[in-house]
Amino acid sequence: MVIHYLAKNLRSIGHNVRVAGVTGWWRYRKLSFGYPVHRWPTLRGLIDKTIKIAQLQLECSIWKTDIIHAHNTYPSGYIAAKACDKNHIPLVITPHGMDIHVIPELGFGHRLDPIKKKMSDYALSGAVLTTAISANIKHSLNKAGVTDEKIRSIPNGIDLERFQKNDAIDIRQHYKLPQDAQIILAVGNYHKRKGLELLIEAMPQILSYKKNVFLLIAGRSDDILKKSVQNLKLHKNVVLTGPIQFPTSALLSVKRSSQQQADQIDLLAAIYLQSDVYVSASMNEGAEGLSLALLDAAAAGLPIVATDISGNRDIVEDGKNGYLVPPADHESLAQAIIKILTDRQISNSFGEKNRIASEKYSWRKIAGKYLDVYKEAIGKING
Q1: Which of 3, 143, 318, 380 is the most buried (most CB within 10 A)?
Q2: pLDDT score at 47
């Protein structure tokens, strides 16, 4: 989604953007996004990377590329660094989390693998500049050996138009919830680092204060979450939606295959807009880059409860637009959520502040910041 919105907005201000290396060569061959997408077949092992490097070199030559912007240090950053080295093209790399953060106790991070770490280091050494989407990404870049002189801080962006009035679907009716239900929302595919089990553990304490509260977890689930719900007998108050597809009609800008009307509804945006509080329960420092879900929640005008870790701290000021609580502490999490659900004035104040603050993250503004970085990187090579 970051690449899509960045490419779309760079094109809208007059630049020629091509997105290369995307998978799904056969499955998505008929889709068009308003900018060229070069899909490559996926092979196995070292030959896959070798062919992709050659493919990228060829495309850079054909299209007279001025700059390559790689998202993630591995594998795309490594492939881009190899291609740039041969073609003498400046490279900018943006890490997004797993490719740069390391949490050994959770087995989280590509850099725990010596081979991936070596390739990631090669990519970072070949980049003219890197960008950091959060303070902790910058810290991890520093730990990986990248100096401050090579780092520019640019956050992720928000598609603000998605979070205008969206009443195409009644979320409470859709998920068979009471019309007076208060909804706690968490968005993200399951991973232990996200603390979703902890959020489920907080529900009994929340329900002891308010009975009409429901937790909605949007994203790919896991048996661990289902067992947590079962063990705590929360099946009536916790909804695990499973994956929610971004509507093709909202994503594509040139042509689209025929879709049923239901597939064209931005269900996730409606969930944000009709929820009462957003929660990010990530467990460890380094577990988040700069969460797109947290930015979306802000754009939807939701008050936020988040664990006090980098990435979350970049967006939430404790007591100003939400609450920050200690990681891995379900009691503190529950107490902060209860404060918001039981005090309409606090809830409205936090939500309005988030809505106003989200405007600085519009993709048009973020694209302009990246354009400045591209110009600087080109200048360093040519200068």
Answers
A1: 3
A2: 79
Q: What is the three-class DSSP state of 324?
A: strand
Based on the fold, state whether residues 297 and 181 are members of the same structural domain. Answer: yes
pTM: 0.84
pLDDT at 187: 95
Do 52 and 171 reside in the same domain of the chain?
no
Model pLDDT, residue 248:
57
The CA angle 224-284-242, to the nearest 5 degrees, is 35
Expressed as residue numbers, the domain containing 133 is 2-157+362-382
Whether residue 348 sits in one domain with residue 254: yes
d(CA 250, CA 253): 8
Number of domains into which the chain is organized:
2
If asked whether residues 322 and 226 sit together in one domain, one would say yes
CATH at residue 198:
3.40.50.2000
Q: Which helix (H) or strand (E) holds 246?
A: none
42 and 67 assigned to the same domain: yes
Q: Which residues contact 248 (CB under 8 A, 6 or more apart)?
A: 31, 256, 257, 259, 263, 264
Per-residue model confidence (pLDDT) at position 142: 95
Residue 243: asked if its preceding bond is cis (omega within 30°), the reply is no
Question: What are the strands, taking DSSP E only, across the chain?
Answer: 19-22, 37-39, 68-71, 91-94, 129-132, 151-153, 182-187, 213-218, 238-242, 277-280, 304-307, 322-325
Task: Say if residues 75 and 122 touch (Cβ distance below 8 Å).
Answer: no
Q: 179: which 2 tokens?
A: 């019309």
Give the pLDDT of residue 106. Answer: 73
In terms of domains, do 141 and 165 share one? no
- Average pLDDT, consecutive stretches of 10 residues, N- to C-terminus, the chain (383 residues): 93 94 79 87 78 91 94 95 88 93 81 94 97 91 96 94 83 96 95 90 96 95 89 96 75 47 75 97 72 93 94 92 95 97 97 95 95 96 79
Rounded (5°) CA angle 204-210-214: 65
pLDDT at 289: 63
Residues 20, 38 contacting (CB under 8 angstroms)? yes
Whether 316 and 277 have beta carbons less than 8 Å apart is answered as no
Are 311 and 371 members of one domain?
no
Residues 133 and 226 in one domain: no
* DSSP assignment string, 118-169: HHHHHHHHH-SEEEESSHHHHHHHHHTT--GGGEEE----B-GGGGS---SS
